[in-house]
Amino acid sequence: MTVRRGWDIAVSVCLVMLTLLAVLSSVNTEISRIPLAVRGVLLAVGLAALLAYYLIWARPRLGTESEGWGVLAVVVIGALLTLSSPNMFTAQVIIYPLIWQGSRGLRRPVIVSALAAIAMTTTSILGAANPDWISSAIAIGLVSYAFNLAMGLWISGIARVGSENARLYAELQLRQEEIAALNRDAGAMHERGRLSRDLHDTVAQTLTGVVMLSRSALRQAESGSPKLVDTVRLIESSAAEALAETRAMVAMASSLEESTLAETLERFCTRFSRETGISVDLRLGLDQATVLTRAEEVILLRCVQEGLANVRKHSGANAVRIETARTDAGIRLTLADNGRGPGASIAVVGGQFGLAGLAERLAGVGGAVALAADPGGGALLSVDLPLASVAAPIPKPRASDTTEDHA
Fold first, then answer.
1. Distance, CA of 140 to CA of 86 (rounded, Å)
2. Under a CB-based contact definition with an 8 Å cutoff, are residues 45 and 84 in contact?
3. How are strands ordered across the β-sheet holding 279-285?
4. pLDDT, tens digit (0-9, with 9 covering 90-100), for 313-347
5. In sequence order, which residues have a C-beta less than 8 Å from that of residue 67 and are 6 or more positions away?
6. Alpha helix (H) ranges present in 107-204?
7. Which residue in 31, 154, 216, 276 is deepest, having the highest Cβ count within 10 Å?
């Protein structure tokens, strides 16, 4: 649309200018040997033909790859105008651009513009009343054609570079889309692998215990053992634990799609308290300036989930305190309970059930996790998560700078 508007303006301005020149040529009876009446008709026909050529042939092909030998009509129109009056040599300012616009490549516009230069020079000499016009017409024709070649080749070179850049840009966009698709696939595969490990470490092991207990219950039922009731109760509690773990994983995968991290953690902790009877004190110390990506939110939610799972299974606690705080590098998450505390064997993260996968997830983003005894009793799980959005702090002004400013 912008290209057509530019051509519309250019053609309109040139037609107005050529019309004024045609009027002046009609008034000056000594400039051409063509009779005044015939000259007026030729000028009117030539200008009308030029306008018709642009509207019917050239304009519909703007911005397309369409071309044809209809561009030769411009040669005839230019020759008709210069035959009417040598002053119409000025029509070259629009004739040559129309030739280049209607041709592809370099060979055709060079040849057609050469034919136009020869035709216009010849007809201007034939129609001129002044015999001294021959040398001037040849000089004007040669200079105009040379300038036409220089400008045409230069603009064509720019157009080729622009087309090549457009092609490269389109190819770059395609490659970026392919890379994005590959990254999504890789992320999905990584997440599936992580989910598989989590299922294996939690639900699968719990269900394995349920199967073993069920077999034991079957044997006890066959032998009439009095321990059958206790075994059935253990099966029930193990199945409930597997159900809770499954619900927690589903919540982690879907809750963040519907609400904020704070809302998701509130719901998760509330459900945990209702299911286990363990009170949870959640303190989110993140201000509005802290911007988390979806991946960072998932990591924090996974850390809380794993920490509470360990509290439920191993701590024997009745209260848990969860806090988040902003640090220079990112976020620190702490989870402390009032239970029995970790054993001496847990000196390196990974020795406790479920923490190995959590440590692996954090290591992938430059974070760290540690489990130690809380000074107040119980266990303390600490998670440091660096943030991609943390900006470098603005340096404080030196005392010398302040002194200089006041001076």
1. 11
2. no
3. 279-285, 319-326, 330-337, 379-386, 368-373
4. 778 888 999 998 888 878 899 999 988 877 643 43
5. 61, 102, 103, 104, 108
6. 107-127, 133-199
7. 31
